[in-house]
Design a protein that fits this description.
The chain is mostly helical. It has 10 helices and 4 strands; from the N terminus they run E-E-H-H-E-H-H-H-H-H-H-H-H-E. It has a two-stranded antiparallel ribbon. A two-stranded antiparallel ribbon has the order 3-4. Helix 4 crosses helix 9.
Length: about 300
């Protein structure tokens, strides 16, 4: 596997596009970001059937996730965690907490999450130097994974990470390990098991309840702490694990016009979220001042979590 070195543009200076040689194991995204075709385990990205050391653990995770992520469970979690009464801290303090977290649902990565946050943010920064809100979104999109830690309730992995999907309507077959939904009680509930379920055509994703996890939690934290990120940033945070939508095109019948526009940014973001996962190390102290400046621009100094 080719090791990629991500050069950092200087703050306030537009990065030059660099021509990078591409071999049969790489491809190039917008602006020259080189994408490895294989993950750090030597398999293609998001290959849930590959015989890797993590395959069975990932499948077991989704088995449990698909059984327990019900409409009532999500409603309960949103009410409980929407109070934001657990911790007060800054965005950067939360970033540092993620050094203690490894995502068991991810077949592509076994590094601490802070590495992935910075890899994602810096890759976006290189290709979209003028979209500082997107750089910051890359940094914070997974901060909700602190739900795994004791001070946030130490929720089980199945209630924090993994692909997300709507609850309250039929589970689309494009959802990874869809077969396990047959053990979910909502699968047999006529209120929830139809195409629209409790929703309606074009109702807007903001009115749709998603399976509970770090995406929705970080969205609630950002929104309730009155972030000034644009709606596209909040959309990316809330739906970046919604692969049935942005990878497979499912559930578009629930989207409104604003969702359609924001989905374009999510699809851009997803390439960096997925493909920047590698063994490349980022110099945290070198890039920290830049991201602190963005945090100060878009968030209060202390947030309720």
């Amino acid at each position: 596997m080719t090791i990629l070195i991500i050069e950092q543009p200087e703050f306030g200076v537009e990065a030059e596009e660099t021509k990078v040689p591409v071999d049969e194991k790489e491809l190039v995204l917008d602006g020259g970001f080189v994408v490895p075709q294989i993950n750090s385990f030597g398999h293609t990205f998001r290959d849930y059937d590959a015989e890797s050391e993590r395959r069975q653990g990932v499948e077991n995770f989704y088995h449990t996730n698909h059984i327990h992520q019900t409409y009532d469970f999500v409603k309960k979690m949103r009410e409980q965690y929407g109070k934001l009464d657990r911790v007060e801290m800054s965005i950067w303090e939360c970033c540092e907490l993620l050094n203690e977290v490894v995502d068991e649902s991810d077949p592509d990565l076994d590094e601490p999450q802070i590495e992935h946050l910075l890899q994602t943010a810096e890759a976006i920064r290189r290709d979209y130097p003028d979209e500082d809100w997107l750089h910051l979104t890359g940094l914070i999109h997974d901060l909700g994974k602190v739900l795994l830690l004791p001070s946030f309730g130490e929720l089980p992995q199945w209630a924090v990470v993994g692909d997300t999907f709507p609850v309250g309507c039929a589970y689309d077959e494009s959802i990874v390990h869809h077969k396990y939904f047959k053990e979910n009680p909502d699968h047999y509930n006529p209120t929830y098991n139809t195409k629209y379920g409790v929703y309606s055509e074009g109702c807007g994703l903001n009115n749709v309840m998603m399976s509970w996890g770090h995406d929705d939690y970080m969205y609630l934290v950002a929104k309730e702490n009155k972030t000034t990120l644009p709606s596209a940033g909040l959309f990316v945070i809330r739906y970046h694990s919604f692969y049935a939508l942005h990878r497979s095109g499912a559930y578009k019948h629930l989207m409104n016009e604003e969702d359609v526009e924001n989905l374009k940014w999510l699809q851009i973001f997803n390439k960096y979220d997925l493909y920047s996962k590698s063994k490349v190390r980022i110099d945290v102290e070198k890039v920290k001042p830049y991201y602190i400046s963005l945090i100060e621009k878009y968030f209060p100094a202390k947030l309720k979590w």
